[in-house]
Amino acid sequence: MKNKKKKNKRRRAPSARAIGRAREGVVRAGQKLSDRLARLERVADGIESAAVERFVAAAVGELVEDQVLRDLGDLQSAFASAAAGSVPDQIEPFRHLPEVVLRWMQARFGLKPYLEAGKVMQVPSEKLGGFALVGDRGAAPAGLLVRIRILAPGWKRGGEVVAPPRAELL
Q: Which domain holds residue 154?
């Protein structure tokens, strides 16, 4: 075996220009990473928002399908029409429960009452499909204005009616 002597080459110190270019490269890479992270955060936020929206829409759909909104509204009206102390003592503590639950649903699910109970209005007969008619008397001829009374409000979420108001033909 031959002993080879290694040459001791000393590296020269990088020039200021080379150091500057290296720094610029690191800054560019850092900026790209920051931009990609920001994009990823926007995508994650979008996924989260979509998931929350799907959950809320499904929950509201179930509340409407099971007629919980209607029943809570009816219960609230029944309590409001009953004088204080006129309901059994076991039920009296629950007098404000429907109101509180409806207010909570409005705040959490973005629900808004649609039309006020007792309101009398005229609507084109073609628009009667937007109401849950009680005691329906059959289809009205097209092109007529029909008088109705709102018996119970419907519910909107955003601009969409999710539960139609209950009404009767006059």
A: 112-170
